[in-house]
Specification:
By secondary structure, the protein is α+β, with helices and mostly antiparallel strands. The chain has a domain of about 100 residues. Helix content is about 40%, strand content about 10%. It has eight helices and four strands, in the order H-H-E-H-E-H-H-H-E-H-H-E. Strands 1-2-4-3 form a four-stranded mixed β-sheet. Helix 3 links the parallel strand 1 and strand 2. Helix 1 runs antiparallel to helix 7 and helix 2 crosses helix 3. The radius of gyration is 18 Å and the shape is globular. It starts with a helix and ends with a strand. This is N-acetylglucosaminylphosphatidylinositol deacetylase.
Length: about 210
């Protein structure tokens, strides 16, 4: 259970606004009596209703969450299952697209960039194509936060159902700074994660 909810919420807001320049109004911290940190298990139907409400309200077109392993955390697993169920119910439209971060073994988790070669093997052909040909229309994505609308790919998702996200050095430092904003929960294991975890550098995703 979060010992000081107000401090925890403030730290989360600072992580959004100062580390990632996300407007405070777009950083929502949900408080729900059925989804408490002290609860052993979370009700997946409650999470699904929250998903449906905010997807409609904010016109969300992409969800990135945990996979079924969910880093061996019951709350993370409940979120993953709720997103999976939502994606299954809307499989015909596949909107919003839902992707799950793939959990790895503890050894690979702390190999940092050394695990990138192994992780990138399934994406080898795509990487080679990107080095030779132009990015297909509809895949030019704006990351500047200015809300530039990019039309969907004309021929559907030519890249299939997996994705690899890799950050650069500045992005890595920004992620570490964001994690450090949570001072009340910062500990030696989180410091180790910030320094060595592959998840701070790259993530491979699978469509749910």
């Amino acid at each position: 259970m979060v010992e000081n909810p107000e401090k925890h919420n403030l730290e989360t807001k600072l992580s959004c606004t100062e580390s990632y320049s996300i407007p405070s109004r777009n950083c929502l911290i949900l408080q729900n009596k059925d989804l408490l940190e002290s609860s052993k298990n979370w009700d997946e139907s409650v999470i699904q209703r929250i998903l449906e409400r905010h997807i409609s309200k904010w016109e969300i077109d992409l969800i990135i969450t945990f996979d079924a392993a969910a880093f061996n955390d019951a709350h993370h697993r409940a979120v993953s299952n709720a997103v999976q169920r939502y994606a299954s119910l809307h499989i015909e439209h596949r909107n919003p697209a839902a992707y799950a971060v793939q959990t790895t073994s503890a050894l690979r988790r702390y190999l940092s960039l050394m695990d990138l070669v192994t992780t990138s093997l399934p994406f080898g052909l795509r990487i080679l194509e990107a080095m030779v040909w132009r990015v297909p229309e509809g895949y030019h994505t704006s990351f500047d936060g200015k809300g530039v609308v990019v039309a969907s790919p004309k021929d559907g998702d030519v890249y299939g159902d997996k994705a690899l996200i890799v950050t650069d050095w500045s992005g890595h430092l920004r992620a570490r700074a964001a994690l450090a904003k949570h001072a009340s929960a910062y500990s030696w294991d989180r410091a180790l994660c910030a320094s060595l975890s592959r998840y701070m550098w790259f993530n491979d995703l699978r469509r749910m």
